[in-house]
Design a protein that fits this description.
The protein is of the alpha/beta class and about 725 residues long. Helices cover about 45% and strands about 20% of the residues.
Length: about 725
């Protein structure tokens, strides 16, 4: 008991060592009053980052021809990384080099580098560090008064304990030293261990006093301390990354020429640091083996660690934003040869733009299906993996992505995203290269009616020709005075054709038609004209950014027209941005599926797996459910066709897709979904309307749907089907 109390006392004394309140007094006492800029870091003098920092100082002197000189400030052992970062923010210190974990309290995005098992090897680290995603992360430091000059290697993290770690239960009741980071605390909590944020210089003492009995750290750092009965388990479960940070005030005070020289020096010093880090790792491993028992984690334990921590990616996707996560995931992939031992499915979608949630919903539908497929042994004796690239709804980027995917020898199909213009631009290439395309969202009629023979595109989604009838019927339930507001691109024109033909069949014409361009922000004049021309209800076909501007403009009118919307608005945070406007505007949106009030056993089972995998708990938290359902069904039908084809051959798989007789799916029980030249699996009868409530889409007629004031004012209530 006494030893336990002493350990608790030591822990309390060390808890602040890695997270104390920023103070710059000690640093200031060490700075000089000359004109030299200053640099401080907490790493030991023999470390790769310290030696590379010395080289950086020399390079700055050379490249500025002596105009900018940097002097090392020897930091006191009482000064934390937080204090040094605070000093740089204030301009009291000019440079520091600190682990990304230690920036998490001011720059949460930096925690992405702490995600367990994010990197497979150093090559993946280099790809991410050299990517535009990494540059974007560094640029975000500007708002914190920092300039991120570069990312440096720290090395893969391993586990050191005073008794062996051989099974999951060995993590219980262990106290692990970590760097300060909420994500790292959650990581060990998932594994069953407790955590204490302690500065590296206190680690050896904490082990000696039995205040901790484990830590995660790099080989180089472990080799620098002496721990009795040390056991080191090689897990490569995480990575330590460093940021070379400069004070924004100091940066802005330099001439443009010297700013450029400092960045050039940082780039050159980065290459030097990489080389040093590689050399030191090999030396440190030899040293560590001489003083500790070093062993590789078993494949069983490694799989358990990965499985238990998988949910962290999805938790932090929601906290930090799916766009940034997707950019990092794309950057780390080895696109020259991704997963050569696996069968691949590809996704080309908006994963980081204004409709990123649409891409996320498609990704999740594919992933949930692949989980089932792999649990049953995979396809053709191999595991199936998903690779994804962002197109941000830009056709040229979608073509580039398709070219990348087409070169993969183990590819069985490419899933498209929300953007019809992207898919339409890809049609010639798809059929020239005979790439099988699966469309779970893009709705333009010519995507399927593309005049290509044989046709390599299969869709489980809305078809604009059918959607036009459905949208118009919904509008006519409110009023015969129907206005149209359409995006000026291939998708908008596809809907214009369908809507005008549907109106003609009824001997009706639109009260007024307005077109808008992608990125347009001012809808006041368009709304004025629609109202002046007598539109009581407006059919909207467009994306979420413009949709939010339009609805917000409508909400300012005394008695705004109702809105019947195509589903392009649902693949984003439209509901959150337009929440105030939606209290005044009666908006109903085309959908095909909902997990809400859906008692089907298969749907309920999939919802449970969704919640478990993606850290959600309610059906209302499932992002863009139609996209997930469509992609799930398409992936399972693709798996059936691949099995019947017997080999990775997209022409043979395409032929087997056409032959599918029956498929019990999430959306429906499909009967000959792609037979007789019709490669649209959904029909008009599969469409429903939904209404936003508290940010979630509830099917019209749901027992949980509350009528808003605007809809109650209407004299002709909407039905649930055309």
């Amino acid at each position: 008991m006494m030893r336990y109390l002493l350990a608790i006392g030591l822990l309390l004394s060390l808890l602040g060592c890695d997270s104390n309140t920023p103070s710059t007094k000690t640093i200031l006492n060490n700075t000089s009053e000359d004109d030299a800029m200053t640099l401080a870091l907490s790493s030991p003098p023999e470390s790769a980052e310290y030696l590379a920092a010395k080289r950086f100082v020399e390079l700055v002197d050379e490249k500025t021809q002596g105009e900018v000189k940097i002097r090392f400030v020897e930091s006191s052992s009482r000064v934390s990384d937080r204090e040094m970062v605070a000093a740089v923010q204030k301009g009291l210190l000019d440079f520091t080099i600190t682990p990304t974990s230690r920036l998490s309290y001011i720059a949460p995005d930096m925690q992405l580098f702490d995600l367990p098992f994010l990197f497979e090897d150093e090559a993946a680290v280099d790809r991410v560090f050299d990517s535009s995603a990494a540059k974007l992360l560094l640029s975000k430091l500007d708002i914190q008064g920092l300039v991120g000059l570069s990312l440096w290697r720290g090395g893969f993290k391993q586990l050191m304990t005073t008794s062996p770690l051989e099974a999951p239960e060995d993590f219980q009741q262990r106290r692990f030293k970590i760097m300060e980071s909420p994500l790292l605390r959650e990581q060990f909590k998932l594994w069953g261990g407790a955590t204490v944020p302690i500065a590296a210089r206190h680690t050896e003492n904490a082990f000696q006093k039995e205040a901790i009995d484990g830590q995660e750290d790099t080989i180089a750092n472990m080799a620098g301390i002496n721990v009795e009965n040390a056991n080191v388990l090689i897990t490569n479960h995480g990575y330590v990354s460093f940021v070379v940070a400069m004070s924004l005030k100091s940066h802005n005070a330099l001439s443009p020429t010297n700013r450029k020289a400092v960045r050039a020096a940082a780039k050159e010093a980065t290459a030097y640091q990489y080389e040093l880090a590689n050399q030191q790792h090999a030396q440190a491993l030899d040293t560590l083996k001489s003083k500790a028992t070093v062993s590789n984690a078993s494949s069983t334990l490694t799989r358990w660690l990965k499985d238990e921590s998988d949910t962290l990616l999805e938790r932090y996707r929601q906290r930090l934003g799916t766009a940034m996560v997707e950019q990092i995931l794309q950057a780390r992939e080895n696109w020259a040869e991704p997963h050569p031992e696996k069968i691949l499915v590809a996704l080309d979608a908006d994963l980081s733009g204004n409709s990123a949630n649409s891409g996320l919903s498609i990704r999740r539908g594919i992933e949930l299906a692949i989980d089932e497929i792999n649990a049953q042994g995979g396809l053709l004796g191999k595991e199936v993996a998903l690779v994804a690239r962002d197109n941000s709804m830009i056709p040229s980027r979608g073509l580039d992505n398709l070219e990348t995917f087409a070169g993969l020898p183990n590819l069985i199909g490419v899933f498209s995203g929300i953007s019809s213009p992207v898919v339409l631009a890809q049609l010639d290439y798809i059929h020239h290269k005979k790439v099988l395309m699966l469309a779970p969202w893009a709705a333009a009629t010519p995507i399927i009616d593309n005049t290509k023979s044989p046709n390599y595109v299969f869709r489980v989604s809305v078809r604009d020709e059918y959607a036009a009838e459905f949208l118009l019927n919904g509008a006519l339930e409110i009023s015969d005075n129907v206005g149209l507001l359409l995006v000026n691109n291939g998708w908008g024109r596809s809907n214009y054709k369908g809507l005008t033909e549907a109106l003609d069949k009824r001997n009706l014409s639109a009260s007024h038609i307005e077109w808008f361009n992608w990125g347009e922000r001012d809808f006041s004049s368009k709304v004025d004209r629609l109202i002046k021309k007598g539109a009581d209800v407006v059919i909207y076909v467009g994306n979420p950014v413009e949709g939010e501007k339009f609805v917000s403009e409508l909400a300012q009118r005394v008695s705004p027209p109702s809105v019947i919307s195509h589903w392009g608005i649902t693949g984003s945070d439209f509901a959150q941005k337009a929440s105030v406007a939606l209290e005044r505007v009666d908006l109903r949106v085309l959908q095909t599926f909902s997990f809400i009030d859906n008692n089907d056993a298969e749907v309920s089972d999939l919802a449970k797996r969704y919640h478990l995998r993606y850290s959600t708990s309610e059906p209302t938290e499932i992002v863009a459910p139609s996209g997930t359902a469509h992609a799930y069904d398409l992936m399972n039908m693709l798996a059936t066709a691949t099995t019947r084809a017997g080999k990775v051959d997209m022409t043979r798989i395409r032929n087997e897709m056409q032959k599918i007789d029956k498929h019990s799916g999430l959306m429906k029980n499909y009967i000959k979904p792609f037979a007789n030249g019709n490669q649209d699996a959904l029909e008009r009868s599969d469409y429903i309307f939904a209404r936003y409530q508290n940010g979630a889409l509830y099917p019209v007629g749901s027992k949980n749907t509350s009528k808003n004031t605007a809809s109650n004012e209407k004299t002709r209530p909407m039905e649930n089907a055309p």
